[in-house]
Amino acid sequence: MMHCSRRGARANRSSKSSNMSTTLPHHTIIPLDFTNLILTQSNKLPHTHTWPHRSYDSPDPSHHPVPVIDLSAPRAVHLIRHACDKFGAFQVTGHGVPVQLLKEVEAEARRLFSLPMGRKILALRSPENMAGYGTAPVSLLCPKGLWSEGFTIAGSVAEHATKLWPAHDESSRFCSVIGEYKKQMELVTKKIITLILTSLGLTNDDVPWMKAEKEAVSEAAVVQLNSYPVCPDPAQAMGMAPHTDSSMVTVLYQGNVAGLQLQSEKGRWVTVPPTEGALVVNLGDLMHILSNGRFRSVLHRALVNGSEHRISVAYFYGSPKGVEVKPAVNLVGEGTSPMYGPVTWKDYLGLKGRHGQKALEMIKTSKVHGMLSVCKMCAMSNVVS
Ligand SMILES: O=C(O)CCC(=O)C(=O)O
């Protein structure tokens, strides 16, 4: 597997694309202009976006499927514990989010990404701030560009929407659909986190910030719209590079086009097939920390395809501003130390933005002393994934 690392990012900066007529340098936060992309030489991918052939890491068809759990089922907690232990992920039905709303969010995402590039970059995010249009943050650590575009909604939805659609009626539809989606996702995500805590033998009292003020809770969440355009050579492209999420949990709607894959404990890729009306739950690094290493945060990626434009919508739930996440006291064995030091979501995002998948290792308790000062000094804060 080709990894994303700071080394890759540095290499990109020094080797600018020789094919600038069809591409932008892939290390920028501006994605390829997919709506205007002119593919030369028999539909070949720009070399900046050509990953090594993935035939050696094809999915494992014999692997157990990622479980689909009905949240209202009496055995939900038991099934969730098993899924968190084995996969670090599961799908949920019975979540109460109307299917019609999911379809409307997907339609709004399609409307956004079909805007001309000139309009989308009016809402371009900056390297310091994740909110807005651009490539997925993970791409900054990758040796090759991603076949995707993203839009991160943090804070005011209206602020984003009016940059994209100056006409009120065009922006207000986006605001009302995304606003309702955020409300519904907050409810379902809190329900899911409560069930996961129960499966660990914990209650919301063990994690007091679960009862935090409403404003604090809304600061704990970010919505990420992802677009994966039809690709002329899907076997050599990458939609979203392998990564774990920094969040506590991520709840993902992936429409009805497959693309999401998780890595099993054996290191093989497992496809998560779209299931009508179901949402995918991925455990993130903060949950791994809270569970004192018991539940793993799942490594995942998104592939692209040659015939369908795929949209996914991720709801990242981290922790309220200023709250330090640390291993739950009840999960730390007597006489032993917690596996990780306390960290805020913001500081952890900074660490992840700089060090990618090595970030977790860096806050292991044996290393914790150097880390927090490193993290606070050079946090590339506000980077999500
Ligand atoms: O599109 C997907 O299936 C995965 C998206 C994802 O991993 C992300 O937004 O971090």
UniProtKB/TrEMBL annotation:
Pfam families: 2OG-FeII_Oxy, DIOX_N. Keywords: Iron, Metal-binding, Oxidoreductase. Residues 219-319 form the Fe2OG dioxygenase domain. Residues 1-10 have a biased composition (Basic residues). One of its GO terms (molecular function) is metal ion binding. Belongs to the iron/ascorbate-dependent oxidoreductase family. This is Fe2OG dioxygenase domain-containing protein. It comes from Kalanchoe fedtschenkoi.
